[in-house]
Amino acid sequence: MAAAPAAAGSGAGRGRLSAATVTAWGGWGGRPRPGNILLQLRQGQLTGRGLVRAVQFTETFLTERDKQSKWSGIPQLLLKLYATSHLHSDFVECQNILKEISPLLSMEAMAFVTEERKFTQETTYPNTYIFDLFGGVDLLVEILMRPTISIRGQKLKISDEMSKDCLSILYNTCVCTEGVTKRLAEKNDFVIFLFTLMTSKKTFLQTATLIEDILGVKKEMIRLDEVPNLSSLVSNFDQQQLANFCRILAVTISEMDTGNDDKHTLLAKNAQQKKSLSLGPSAAEINQAALLSIPGFVERLCKLATRKVSESTGTASFLQELEEWYTWLDNALVLDALMRVANEESEHNQGASEENGLPHTSTRTQLPQSMKIMHEIMYKLEVLYVLCVLLMGRQRNQVHRMIAEFKLIPGLNNLFDKLIWRKHSASALVLHGHNQNCDCSPDITLKIQFLRLLQSFSDHHENKYLLLNNQELNELSAISLKANIPEVEAVLNTDRSLVCDGKRGLLTRLLQVMKKEPAESSFRFWQARAVESFLRGTTSYADQMFLLKRGLLEHILYCIVDSECKSRDVLQSYFDLLGELMKFNVDAFKRFNKYINTDAKFQVFLKQINSSLVDSNMLVRCVTLSLDRFENQVDMKVAEVLSECRLLAYISQVPTQMSFLFRLINIIHVQTLTQENVSCLNTSLVILMLARRKERLPLYLRLLQRMEHSKKYPGFLLNNFHNLLRFWQQHYLHKDKDSTCLENSSCISFSYWKETVSILLNPDRQSPSALVSYIEEPYMDIDRDFTEE
């Protein structure tokens, strides 16, 4: 056995202890004080001075101390590892030592992950903690990075098997010992180097899982353009590796979330955008561009997303991967669940075979279908997430074009019934610590990710018509022809070779499952958002009628009124969808009046609207805009609806409009404006713009003033509204803001929006349409610098 090298200058040799060790023992002649050595090692780890590694102790001392503290011989093994891992070593002995260390940590990590946390050893300190404290983590990083060192022009090499052992030990230590992952994340050169280890299939899974954990805690996002030969690396991945690599990409292409709610306010977002403009593209944007520059990258993702289960990896390679997962703790729970399903189906098949007198094959040679399906689901949800993020990025149009070209939508349509929205079997997979309805389960996560992708794909983009099949596109054309209106240009321009095939398109399939969804289902929110995104943009009568004919309006009203939905998120998504479905559509209002056919039902509907205007204001805006348009039309059908519809009659009353206006302004302030509630400000502006058209703006402002006084808060509301409008100008008149959303949602030109805001902010107190004319001098507070509050 090689002698352990003494620390330089320590005087430790021939059994004599170093000064640091003497201190740890509490001086000559005394018994070791428990924890002193560990405390000093911990201090050394934090400061970089003093005791930091096992090599600073003699083997004799460590062996004696281990008898008392029960460290499982880990410090002594690290001492040997130092001695056998020098630059000129052949690493054979080094690898043998790693094989001894690995099981000491892996069982501990397994217990930790499965929440048993009952370590077999009777010790205060886990093995992983001891391993790290005596310098094991830093030593393994050095060993792994030996290939980056050249000796006489030749690069050092270590075997894949040894790299695999190092990665496994590092990961187990990260799992059990707090702070290790963060320390590794600070070693940027090491993180970049890890990507190069993914070139080998033998070390790919271990490397990918460790990278994912490290990037999850890294303060600054890594830049993929710094990874050597990124394009070659990704291009050489097989489909299985690419799917797993998407777990890493999910961290590198999503904008980092600070977790601070204040950062989600529009004030903070605007400030961040100004800062970003001076700094240039963010790391996430740079990473997205780097990926999109890789030839065939998006095409391969589309193939993975639309691959059928029968086309996936063969049984042998899948079982091999599952066995690797078993030793790789991040996936151990998933494996346990998969194997439970496999055993259940295997037992069932075995029983059936015995009854029929047929021989049965083992699970290892005949992989159960449920395992194949779950394997594919776990891949697809990662791939769909990456595609979804790319769809929302700066290169959205480029990604849209490629996704359409590579037939992602028709491919997903073909998988809808058998995989995406498949019926659960009796032994549906449930992860450890979760239940079948938990949002963390792969089945549910895939559905949500699928719906988010549809939402991003349809939102304000003409490619949304790819969600239909040829027959459904013809139906849209027929609706326009019957109504004697021009056919939607985007429908005419849709490439029929790229649309869905089969009896139903993806949108129709979504409507079918949406109507069958249980009242308490968490999918309702995402389903409504996905369908609403199809209607967003310039209002299309044909699109609305397509959905109305399929009973969507009645379904929404049932959920709002008859099921008396309590979820605020679901209610908001349903109100938004209902607004887009009914806007300017006389037939929709007739259907509404037919369903809400009693005062009792109408009162329940109003109660839901008034319970939270943040949730329902988009519907209020759409009904208000529709009322204004209908009142200016000369048509018997429209006149009939105006005279019969309870909702239109309710909104037409000035006291109703003033009540909405007062509350919309009162529930928001500049400091609390977010992307979610800024719609309240825009809805209040819509009400006032329509009043201005009718030359009633001074009347509405005067009524607001009276309402202020009746509430005993003179000036409070109008000062707040003045500040909100000043912010509106800063926010919407910025050169990078897209005003078409406001125009499309209201059919009011953006110039009219700007003019109305300017009129309201006119400083002339003699102007009858200026807010300041209705704020009494003692209560005036309009010059506050809200950006500094």
Automatic annotation (TrEMBL):
Keywords associated with the record: Receptor
Top-level taxon in the UniProt lineage: Eukaryota
Residue ranges, annotated region (Disordered): 345-364
Compositionally biased spans, kind Polar residues: 349-364
InterPro entries: ARM-type_fold, TRPC4AP
PANTHER family the record matches: SHORT TRANSIENT RECEPTOR POTENTIAL CHANNEL 4-ASSOCIATED PROTEIN, TRANSIENT RECEPTOR POTENTIAL CHANNEL 4-ASSOCIATED PROTEIN TCPC4AP
Name by which UniProt lists this protein: Short transient receptor potential channel 4-associated protein isoform X1
Origin species: Galeopterus variegatus
Gene (UniProt): TRPC4AP
